[in-house]
Design goal:
GIY-YIG endonuclease; 8-stranded mixed beta sheet; 7-stranded mixed beta sheet; 22 helices; 31% helix; DNA-binding
Amino acid sequence: MALMIPTHALPPLSYLVPAGTGSGVGPGTVVVAPLSGRSRLGVVVGPDPEPGRAREEICSVRHDLSVPPDLLGACLRISGSYAVPLPNVLRATLPPGLDAGRFLVVRPGGGWPWESGSVVSRAEIKKAIGADALRAAEAEGAVTLRPAVPERKAVEWSVVRGGAEPDLARAPRQREVFGVLKDRGGALPSSVLLSETGAGRSVLRELARRGAVTLVRRPEPVPVFDTSGGGESGLKPFRRDAGRAVGRGGPFVWRVPTDEQPGAVAAVARAAVEEGEQALILAPERETVDRLVRHLLRALPAGYTVAAYHGGLGKDRTAVHAAVRDGEADVVVGTRAAALLPLARPGAFCVVDEPDGSHRAEAGYEGLPIHTRDVAVARGRAEGAAVVCLSPVPSLRLFAAGGRGRGRVGELPPRAPVGWPSVRVVDMRGSGSVLSSTLLDACRRFAGGGGRVGVIVDRLGYAAVVTCNRCGAVRRCPGCDVPLASPDGSSLLACPRCGRREPNGGRCAECGSDRLSPAGIAVERVREGLAEALGSPVGLITAGRRELDGAPVVAGTARCVLREGWDAVVIPDVDSSLQASGLGATERSFRLVYRAAEAASGLLLVQTRAPEHHALLAAARGDYAALVASEVPRLRAAGYPPFAHLAVASLHGPEEKVLRAVESRLRPAVEAGVEVSDPVGVARAGRPPYWKVLLRARELDPVARAASLVARMAAGTHGLQARVEVDPEEV
DNA sequence: AGCACGCCGACT
DNA sequence: GTCGGCGTGCTC
């Protein structure tokens, strides 16, 4: 049984199941069991492979929380393949808000302020009787762990009372309210009824007094919505292929233009619900989730239910979790937090915008550092469901997994983009300016004709770097050696890594010249330059700010600009993306340019000093096959996923401890076929450095085992901390 | 000898 | 994760 303690250091432990509670305890059952005199929540993973070790008995069984056995199988696989402790993975399938720190008082001791049967938090007990007494009480069973799911708030409902209809001939307001209530099935939350009819409480009170309705308290309604049917046309072109995928099961990539993804999602969902199964749709952002929910409510035939699941739901999340687990929602659309939602009848998983980075939590932050696509693929296999990953430009690691044996990913017939803008690649070699005349002319032409131009600049602030005009040296942060950026063009420079602030101006550290000027293309500078050249204000859209976003020309980050449609899209500095470090830079640049072309109805204009770059030219003509042909061999040669697998371990602690741990403990212990790199120091301003170790092997699981080994090693070594990430999106 | 501290392994 | 045992090294 895996106890819900989030650590690499604790293996599953064995317990006896008392004869009385034995029925129905099996893989996935949630139980309470003792460990070192304290009771803990745990999930049964299976019978003990070497029976006889168990000495303690399970305290209680929580069938209401249990994990479906197939989903447990997926969790075991995910934990094993991505070096995430099983309890962390399992936590993501349990109800959100589950409070594992509550106790049921079984036999209150003398002087306790509670009677038997009350449920109290650990903190309250500690305060009342002290930590030692709590331990003793726990050990002898006077209190027992009783994890609690937050109670749903009760609200007042108005319910039509059967029997003779009251005479409302002389009460038009009451008649109207009563009519609406009957039309809506005879029961509504009073607040909904009143706001829909615009009536006051007195009307309702009067109806209740006459006996026409009764006012009862019921749990707040769960945000699970009924489909209305009607607008099905968008999904028609996708129905056959979606039906094939859902019928066959297993993982698929489906290259679908971005603006047609909702149709493909609806087709996948429909194929699942028509089989009587559920569909889980995973999108990178809340906004996309909500949009897809609205789309599905219209696009699916009437008679099904759809729910959203993401962090913005607050207390409703627990209720949606229960509705999905109990099969009351046919389709659920969620962010990565929904990736491990238990489904009563799993039929299809669908990953929207598959290559999007938001599908994976960053290591060390809340959420599992595993890409939603990988979670979905593991679930599809374990739960016997289809997995459909949508994007016009799928990640190469997924796409290239196509032809190979076990992890084979099928491809559904790609849908060609409808309409492609004319593309202009402007050669900036030999030009010192940021904005070419071609670019400015294009902006004038489109803006003058009533069109809208979106300008993509993926660097916030005013200038990415400040350089010396005389010797060309770049001003760097004294702490991190990273170029200082100018957030607003004013008198202050800031380090993008550590946030340290330095005064602008002064002299060049290399040659002493005072001719320092901003360089590097950042969004504020482009905005200012454009406004000056065009003679009209330019809008701004970034994650944090929106200004004049109705202006004919709007500059912003790729994520924000690509959310909308434009007559022309401009990328003034595609080189910053092309030259970014890492093997994935080419792929990411291709995707940026491709998506920009999709978002532009008339013109895509790209400025570059590498006008012959193959990925740039391929993206300009929408040629994904060319990207595959050039990049997949590079991934293969470099030993990158899916041809090999790697893990990054970040070790925090004193240098000698790190080196000793890696050389004398890790290296001798890793299995054959796993390469272990030398630790590389990563310097950080103001904070001690940390070390990175790269692990690599042909197969995923050996890499994950080595990564877990690092994590366990660090967990058992005082002063050493490790964070591991298997197959990160970027190394 | 007596005690503080940190490391390590057990916990089922 | 949390605890206790034990070895090291220091103090009385």
